Amino acid sequence: MSQDGAASGTTEETTRRYYESADVDAFYDAVWGGDDIHTGIYAHPEEPIADASRRTVDRLADRLVDRLGPGRSVLDLGSGYGGTARHLAARFGCTVVALNLSEAQNVRHRRTNAERGLDGHIDVVTGSFHDIPYGDGRFDAVCSLEAFCHSDDRERVLREAARVLKPGGVLSFTDLMAAEDAPDRTLRPVVSRLGVDALATPAFYLRELTRLGLDHADFEDHSDQLPVHYDRLTEETGRREAELRGVISSDYVDHLLGNLPLWAAAARSRQLRWGIFSGRRSA
Ligand SMILES: C[S@@+](CC[C@H](N)C(=O)[O-])C[C@H]1O[C@@H](n2cnc3c(N)ncnc32)[C@H](O)[C@@H]1O
Q1: At 233, which CATH number?
Q2: Is 80 near ligand 1, meaning CB less than 6 Å away?
Q3: Domain count of the chain?
Q4: How far is the CA of 143 from the centre of ligand 1 (A)?
Q5: Residue 83 alpha carbon to ligand 1 centre in Å
Q6: Which residue has a Cα nearest atom 16 of ligand 1?
Q7: In which domain, by residue range, is 257 found?
Q8: CA separation for the pair 270, 60 (Å, rounded)
Q9: Tens digit of each residue's pLDDT (9 = 90 or more) over 240-255
Q10: Which atom of ligand 1 is found nearest the CA of 56?
Q11: How far is the CA of 100 from the centre of ligand 1 (A)?
């Protein structure tokens, strides 16, 4: 993480290139279903990844619920293919601004919104959560699912997120994190694809939410879902290996088959953490 408050354009460029590679795009589409790309909350270990991932959005929405509804505006930071934005708009009738770095994802996001008749509710904007292009106090709620792990300046991201909240507005997000006592070097091979030096920890986020003056800063710990999720991804990739080799380069399939078990092992050894944070801006 940069110490001088300047988020690194290099990290953003690495992230953009990662999400815009044809292999990564095809993998997310084939294995997650093209809506949500984040850790699921599984009702049972064999549940489809897409169903569990959707449950995560619902659990996050529980945190925002008094700020959702017709006339309310929500900002989704790092919105991917738009699964969260569409679900919130369809279920609650709110409007959503979906801010996301990858224009390739945003093109697909806009197309899906139009196909599902939700384009009038969702504004897909290309940009970075390090510099949110909106004035102070604009949104009733700000959310993000598993995107801050890509930041090299998470203090700045949270400062930006809190800045654009209306008084009484709620920020809620999930993220992949390291355990407080996980040595950086142990996780380095696992997090290498993210292009960041280190992951945040739950204590870091809780401290920052409090420092920013958000009330009721809270962490709902779902770290026990991580081994289930990465086991599911590993199994699914293995089971569909032949089919995936038809749409993804063989090198990338080989990389996935080697890398996903590392994530599962790190999660099982409790070096990774994951869950839902929330905090409310004072009214
Ligand atoms: C794991 S994906 C999650 C996508 C989406 N939130 C979801 O749950 O389906 C991470 C997302 O963060 C976005 N992202 C990473 N860095 C970003 C930045 N600096 N500003 C905006 N979006 C960013 C990527 O484009 C990618 O879509």
Answers
A1: 3.40.50.150
A2: yes
A3: 1
A4: 12
A5: 12
A6: 150
A7: 9-281
A8: 23
A9: 999 999 999 999 999 9
A10: 8
A11: 6
DSSP string for 66-99:
GG-STT-EEEEES-TTSHHHHHHHHHH--EEEEE
51 inside domain: yes
Any atom of ligand 1 within 6 Å of the Cβ of 146: yes
pLDDT in tens, 83-134: 999 999 999 999 999 999 999 999 999 999 999 999 999 999 999 999 999 9
Q: 101 C-alpha to center of ligand 1: Å?
A: 7
Cα first-last separation, the chain: 31
Asked if residue 3 is part of any domain, the answer here is no
**Low-confidence residues in the chain, pLDDT < 50:** 1-6
Which pairing describes strands 165-178 and 272-281: parallel, antiparallel, or unpaired? antiparallel
Contacts of 206 (CB under 8 A, 6+ apart): 217, 218, 219, 277
Ligand 1: which of 35, 36, 37, 132 to mutate, most ligand atoms within 8 Å of CB?
37
Is 1 contained in some domain? no
4 domain residue, yes or no: no
